[in-house]
Structures are given as structure tokens and as C-alpha cells.
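Title: Prediction job returns without error message
Component: structure pipeline
Severity: low
Priority: P3
Assignee: unassigned

Description:
Job completed but the reporter wants confirmation the result is attached to the right record. Sequence as submitted:
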Amino acid sequence: MRRLARIGVSLAGVLAALGLAACGSDESGSDEASGSNLPQGSEPVNLDPADFTTQIDNPYWPMTPGSVWVYRETDAEGAMMRVEVTVTSKTKRIANGVEARVVHDLVTEKGHPVENTYDWYAQDSDGNLWYMGEDTKEYENGKVASTAGSWEAGVDGAQPGIALPADPKPGQSYRQEYYAGEAEDNGEIVSLDEQAEVPAGHYQPALMTRDTTPVEPTVLEFKFYARGVGPVLELTASGGSDRDELISYHHGDAAG
């Protein structure tokens, strides 16, 4: 889920995050989480497939098969779209050898498809949630217009990244994905003690991240995750003013 925004967010947290954005960091080394270095930039990683599982129980984004999140996305022009994210019972063997969980992300406007994506996630033995790639299609007038942004770890130099660390701490930074010139998102943990109010409810405390990409250097996003639920809110603070908010969440009961 990459398109969210603001409603009932802690102002202090946002101001603190903007302070981080202005100050930046002069450290280029990897952060630590659960004893493992988090990947940075374009650095390659060698992952042991035996260290991964498709049974994802990261507390800030549990992915039980059958789970469904529905979001309302509003852009700067006021256009409203529906985003439905479903954890499927399917898995996919990624080119780097890791077996990943398949998550379906469908964006529609007035019932018509705008974007149809299959994302691939896996969790390591420390509990870090890894993003292994995506197969995405954008639509215009009911037809596929672009597949830009699709990538798979281990193909054409693409490297997997961290969707969420196992043990998040403010100041941690990490690569979320890397495919040169196409997908180079980075994340940073801002706070574990924020709050967000969306149609699905009021969530406190919430984890807040600051997301950027060198591919679009003017874009700055903040995302909010609730324990036991997952992403509940995302706002674009620069490079747009999109906002996505959680409308409903259904926890899956399939074993997968």
C-alpha cells in the first residue's frame, strides 16, 4: 500500500518528522534490527531461502491469508479511488530462491480498474518483513497502459528490501526496494507513539515512517501502521497531496 494520507494525525509527530527531514543524517552505515543489518541503497544482499517463511506475523503488518484491507484514496484534484489489498493463499518462488506470500492490490475508480498489482512478501527468522517485488499493471480506458515499476528480486540487478523491521526503533533507516531507476524507495522509522483516526477507527499508538525515493526526490510520504492491523493511513507531504485512509479491515482465518 503506497498511497495514503492524513486524518487525525498527531501534529507533534509530523513536526518532529519534518525536523528529521530538514536535518537528515550523516551516517551511511546499516542500522541494526534483531541482530541483523538492514539493507541500504543499492547494496546487494545474499539471502538464505531456508531463513524465510510465508507465515507473516510481524505485529505491525500481519499477513494472514484471507485478510483484506479497504482504503479510500483521494488525490489533489478530489478524485476518489477504492484500494483493496488482499492476502492470498498463493505463494511465489522468487528468482533469488525465497518463497514469498502473494498479496493482491487492486485500485479502482467508479468500478473501473486503475492499477492491478501482485506484491510479494516474506519474513525472515528475526521477524523482519521483506519486500521481494511486484507485478504491476496500470490501466487507461480499461486497457493495460503501463507495467512500469514491476520488478523481482534477483532479476536484472533488483534487490529486495525491508517493508517493516522486526524491532522498529526511531531513527532506523532501510531500503524498501531497489531496481535502478524504477523502484528505489527508502524508509525511516520516525516514532512508535503516534495516533491516526480514520473511518475504520482510532489507532493509538501507531508506528510512523518517513518514506522517500531518489527516483522522485521531491516526494515525501508519511505512513502509519497499527499493531495487529497493518497500514491505516498515508499522507503525501511533498510531491502531491494524496491521502489514503483505512475504511475496513477483515482479519483472515486461512492457514495459507
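Comment from assignee: result matches the submitted record. The two ends are 21 Å apart (CA to CA).
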